[in-house]
Design goal:
Blueprint: E1 5-10, H1 14-24, E2 32-37, E3 49-52, E4 55-58, H2 69-78, H3 87-92, E5 112-116, E6 119-123, E7 126-130, H4 136-159, H5 167-192, H6 202-207, H7 213-222, E8 241-245, H8 249-262, E9 266-268, E10 272-279, E11 282-289, E12 295-299, E13 302-305, H9 309-321, H10 333-341, E14 344-354, E15 378-381, E16 390-393, H11 394-397, E17 409-417, H12 428-441, E18 451-464, H13 473-481, E19 486-488, H14 490-493, H15 500-516, H16 522-525
Parallel strand pairs: 1-2, 1-13, 2-9, 6-15, 13-19
Antiparallel strand pairs: 3-4, 5-8, 6-7, 10-11, 11-12, 14-17, 14-18, 15-16, 16-17
Helix pairs in contact: 1-8, 1-15, 4-5, 9-10
């Protein structure tokens, strides 16, 4: 009988838990001794579900959709697709392609719902379809003059291409300068705290990819045709249907954690990694600290890290400076400089439980509520007059996120900020008051009298940012890859603005390397780097 290979996984978010499950499933626990170290008591990272007084918040909003069939099948195996109508399906007479033999959301919690995505943009006191569509409402809201200006500006951008050495030029090449200035410039600065001209075009390449005016128009015209295109044929930013766990995204990751534990994975919470030790060019152990400040050293053969790159390098550096560590190896000074210069954008979500929204449902999509609410999952606040970046309407993600879904509306206001800045440091009361004032000014609620409950949630290191020392990431990747038994996975583990499915794919690739003995990590780092945004003729 061969000895088990030990693997330590840092982080209990989508990347870390995917790695754990991939190692222990199908009898893998007989070959691998797996330990997961999670710094908090919750699972799912930014994909967790926050529970408050019977209502649930989705941090950041998570559509379960991927063009990678492996991921879609993976999700479906954890939480099977609904085989009967959900509460809102029944009340609204809504029909989906239900899964034969699938569970009934009204009688079981472990189920994935099929959802319809509606998102709009709030700009200049008008609502626009998101993404931009050829609807009469769009033209009416823009007005004849702005429509003409945007059209001619776009035609100019098709002829005169700018060098794509920053995010501003990336957007102008795809949408024209007028639409860029209206819908992208202010919002991007609000999101990142930097002007788009200071941000790498890599961010647009990953998040927008093939989306352009041409794709928007193609998508709009395709809806007029009898044949329906599948989600795989549509740019990701234009997807209209997706899956969603009944009790929010955290439910899926809590299920994966439980399943992994039941098959033998050792999961330790409140385990904050403070040192990562090396010996003869390999990682030899990690040292973690628990809530009581006690330290434990864990030796292993392989290490999978989804902790922020900055923290990973500082943990390596701390081990190199610890006098008690017999194998002290200093991290090169230029590598610590790159790591500590990597920027992040943090955000705060303020959840408000309100009696009603003043917004009328002007769409033809029926909704719950008395009176009926708007059908949006997200409302993007592109208007620079407001600090809030997006508003989530949790009722529309899943009726089961809201305790009294017929008589209350549970919304989440997302504010982009920097950890430690004035907005981050506001008290719960101050942040709530600020959010209520903004919603009132937008004519969405009638002030404090409409608010029944609230909850503020801080989310550090939510978005890895693409400026400052980011341009030196390839050098840092080369250094980290020099440790043959260390795999960096996930959004923060790779300092890449991955979606949930991309983070999972990095872990699937890493585990495959461990199982097959593959030494190159190019497959792990190359997830979500394809440049599929080449110009269309």
């Amino acid at each position: 009988m061969t000895e088990k290979k030990s693997v330590v996984i840092i982080g209990g978010g989508p990347a870390g838990l995917t790695a754990a499950w991939e190692l222990v499933k199908d009898g893998g626990s007989e070959q691998y001794d797996v330990t997961v170290l999670e710094a908090t008591k919750q699972f799912g990272g930014i994909s967790r579900t926050v529970k408050h007084n019977g209502n649930r918040m989705d941090i950041g909003g998570h559509r379960f959709f991927s063009k990678d069939d492996r991921i879609m099948d993976w999700w479906k195996n954890v939480l099977p697709l609904q085989g009967a109508p959900s509460y809102d399906d029944k009340k609204l007479g809504r029909h989906h392609d239900l899964e034969p033999g699938g569970p009934d959301p009204e009688t079981t919690d472990e189920v994935m719902l099929k959802r319809h995505r509606v998102s709009r943009i709030f700009w200049n006191r008008h609502f626009f379809d998101y993404p931009i569509s050829l609807s009469p409402n769009t033209l009416r809201s823009l007005g004849f003059k702005l429509t003409m200006q945007a059209g001619f500006s776009y035609l100019k951008s098709m002829v005169h291409k700018l060098p794509e050495d920053n995010l501003e030029n990336f957007y102008i090449n795809r949408f024209g300068r007028k639409l860029y200035s209206m819908f992208f410039e202010g919002y991007t600065e609000k999101l990142w705290g930097r002007h788009p001209s200071e941000i790498s075009a890599d961010w647009g390449a990953q998040r927008v990819k093939g989306l352009s005016i041409i794709e928007v128009l193609k998508n709009a015209f395709s809806k007029l045709l009898p044949k329906k295109r599948s989600n795989k044929e549509v740019e990701t930013s234009l997807i209209e249907e997706f899956w969603y766990p009944k009790l929010g995204p955290g439910q899926l990751w809590e299920t994966v954690e439980r399943n992994s534990r039941e098959l033998g994975a050792n999961v330790i919470t409140d385990a904050h990694v403070v040192e990562i030790r090396q010996d003869q060019g390999k990682i030899s152990s990690v040292v973690y600290e628990n809530a009581a400040g006690e330290r434990t050293e864990l030796h292993a053969d392989e290490f999978i890290s989804s902790m922020p790159v900055k923290d990973l390098v500082n943990a390596l550096d701390a081990a190199g400076k610890n006098e008690e560590n017999e194998h002290k190896v200093a991290v090169p000074a230029d590598m610590t400089k790159v790591a500590n210069g990597l920027p992040y954008r943090d955000f705060v979500t303020v959840g408000l439980l309100v009696k009603r929204l003043r917004l009328k449902n002007t769409t033809d999509i029926p909704t719950l509520g008395n009176p009926p609410i708007v059908p949006d999952c997200w409302i993007y606040v592109q208007d620079p007059g407001y600090k809030v970046g997006r508003i989530q309407v949790f009722n529309n993600w899943s009726p089961y996120l809201v305790k009294d879904v017929d008589n209350t509306v549970w919304v989440g206001l997302e504010y982009f900020c920097a950890e430690g800045d004035d907005f981050w440091n506001m008290s719960d009361e101050e942040a709530t008051k600020f959010a209520i004032e903004e919603l009132t000014r937008m004519h969405i609620i009638n002030g404090e009298q409409d608010v029944l409950d609230s909850h503020r949630e801080r989310v550090p290191k939510a978005y890895p940012a693409y400026f400052d020392t980011y341009e030196h990431m390839p050098e840092l990747v080369e250094y980290l890859d020099s440790f043959g038994n260390l795999y960096c996975v996930g959004r923060n583990g790779q300092h890449r603005y991955n979606n949930q499915d991309h983070s999972m794919a990095t872990s699937i690739e890493a585990v495959n390397n461990i199982k097959t003995g593959k030494t190159s990590k190019r497959n792990v780092w190359s997830v979500n780097t394809e440049k599929s945004y080449h110009e269309k003729k």
